[in-house]
Batch of 3 targets.
Target 1
Amino acid sequence: TTFINGIDFVRQIENYRNSGRLLPTTLFVTFDITNLYTMITRHGAIAALQKFLSKHADNRRIHGMTIDTITRLARLVLDTNCFVYNNKYYQQIRGGAM
């Protein structure tokens, strides 16, 4: 799920709670990518992320998440970035989101 801004996030969380899907076992992962330039290839960005995570990981985990899981989440963001321009939807196929 993507959110437009903080207010949208709060509203969607409230809807999630009101629908009965928010359980004590529910886990949320949020992240915001900043300063990722479109000239960096996706492969290069993933390689840099994996190098950074490997350097700072404890038993190939960062705060309980495996490096593989974090890498898969990063690929999800990079591979499904969409935007609207002049009321038309586009999927970014080169580089990364700004």
Target 2
Amino acid sequence: VKPGAAAISLIKGMRVRPEGPQLISQMVRRNLGIDCAVLMGANIATDIAHEELSEAVIGFDNHDEAMLFKKLFQRPYFRISLLPDP
């Protein structure tokens, strides 16, 4: 992974281990050694693909990276909010 790389998890769910649950973003942070924001929301991929009004939240630690991800994902039919809590 290149220095300065940013990651965002689009995966719903978590890994269940004998020690307890682990968020996918935690796995990314540990395995890649970089911060990982999370995009989540009560939306359906096909609704977004059909440009139906949907919303999601990006949970983050790094505000600058979150703003970049918001610019990448937000569309007139797909509203993105930011929350400083990955």
Target 3
Amino acid sequence: NKKAFVELLFWKSPAAVYEMTKGYSSLQEGEGTTRSRVSPWTPQEEQELRELYWKYKEMEGGDIIAAIMAHLPTPGRTRRQVVKQLVRM
């Protein structure tokens, strides 16, 4: 690639650098990205999250997110994922 020097002028993620050095089709689909590690929310999980939010939103002096996380049916979710999903919904 005669214009590869231009790519060196911009910041890269580790996945992009790997592709530049090993070839652009060397990464499998979704590999090297953070999104591939996060499982998407199912409609059932979203409904459960919505119900838990409405149940605990009036809780005074407590951590609403901690209360929701304690009652989520899927324990693999992080606090950040729960907050991000609540904001998105």
